[in-house]
């Protein structure tokens, strides 16, 4: 279980708010990541540190199917995204690239921006402000996919 700082966002956060469409023209994720959450928190890329968490409400990652949305979060070192629920395509894209996305119904309403949190994917729990929250416990095969860097990397290893 590792601790990180929470960056909290609202319900129905869409992929255009994570990374605006005009930045999709940049050639690399490293060039895109400096624009992550630009319309909501322009300092996010400077403030977030490897191991920190993004916490959201309902329907996190709605909108377009752009894979760059979870990719810029992972590139900035976000350890996991924890939300009440996820848009299906964001969830799949996150797993594909190896970014843990965890459903935790009660935590988002109980924490604020800047709080510290610990998350255990194997136990399916998060701890923040002295309280333990029950979250989605990822099956072992899903944890293995994430530990290998995502579905694409996992499938490439199987072929080798």
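Q: What amino acid sequence fits the structure above?
A:
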């Amino acid at each position: 279980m590792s601790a990180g700082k929470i960056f909290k966002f609202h319900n129905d956060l869409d992929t255009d708010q994570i990374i605006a469409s005009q930045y999709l023209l940049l050639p690399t994720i490293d060039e895109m990541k400096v624009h992550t959450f630009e319309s909501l928190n322009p300092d996010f890329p400077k403030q977030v540190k490897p191991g920190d968490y993004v916490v959201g409400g309902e329907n996190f990652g709605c909108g377009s199917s752009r894979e760059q949305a979870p990719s810029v979060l992972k590139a900035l070192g976000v350890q996991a995204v924890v939300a009440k629920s996820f848009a299906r395509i964001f969830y799949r894209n996150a797993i594909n690239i190896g970014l843990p996305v965890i459903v935790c119904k009660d935590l988002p309403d109980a924490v604020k921006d800047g709080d510290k949190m610990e998350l255990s994917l194997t136990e399916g729990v998060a701890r923040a402000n002295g309280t333990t929250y029950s979250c989605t416990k990822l099956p072992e095969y899903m944890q293995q996919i994430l530990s290998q860097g995502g579905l694409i990397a996992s499938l490439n290893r199987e072929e080798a």
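Q: And what stands out in the fold?
A: The chain has a mean pLDDT of 93.
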